Amino acid sequence: MKKRTRQTRGATKGRQSVIALLTDFGDRDHYVGTMKGVILSMNPRARIVDITHNVLPQNVEEAAYLLWACYRYFPQGTVFTCVVDPGVGTERKIVCVGTDQYRLIAPDNGLLNLIAHQETIRESIAVVDPHRFGLQPISATFHGRDIFAPLAAQVSLGKPLTKFGKHYDLTIPSAAFYEPERGATNGRILHIDHFGNIVTNIPEKYFGRCTIKVGKIVISTRIASYSEAPEGLPCMMIGSSRLIEVAVRNDSAAKVLNANRTTPLSILKTSEH
Fold first, then answer.
1. Secondary structure of 242-256 in the HEC alphabet?
2. Looking at residue 199, what is its pLDDT?
3. Does some domain include residue 246?
4. Are 59 and 107 in contact (CB under 8 A)?
């Protein structure tokens, strides 16, 4: 009997591949539906999953967090196709990245930073001459339809990334998450979710060791669940992404603290234990 080997190089032809879409296109216009139409025209067996299309417009850092927070829960071979692209129509590169289990397609604008910080990148190419495989003519404003969707469909059919471009050294950030051992002195707000919870870039291992300040407000109370929080008091907790979050019971922490993604986040104390 022939030994079955684990599939690590993406989807094979004819397989019901998963293509996961993440954009800032919203759900009011035709853009997302058009991308899906292109994908299904080229790979009718593709299974398309919407991560979200409500990334704040042009907010690359938020997109990077949302992708990082969910990608590991997808099946092996998933092709992540991410279009938050303020530089559409310019000379910015489109990159295709391969890890041991996934393929990721995105503009080279930092959208893959958090994943590149955590995953081992096995392949990284920059797309060359999309006129060879994209829709014609290629619009200067809708590369999601004309380049990203055809590329995702063909990668999902098993075509190697090297068919679409040449090797490219993806820049990997040195400190995507708060790590005082690497010289970080302050944290960052990565995301504010639908409930107003503030997601920081501070890993859970610092939960019992630090006090933080969001803007001018010091947060020192720690809770394990929302129900433990006193009404109206901003508290720290470990969120589902294993990062420290700030929450207010039955309210929006962002509203209570008058915070947004650019609000300064200071680390006031980091103990050894």
1. CEEEEEECCECHHHH
2. 97
3. yes
4. no
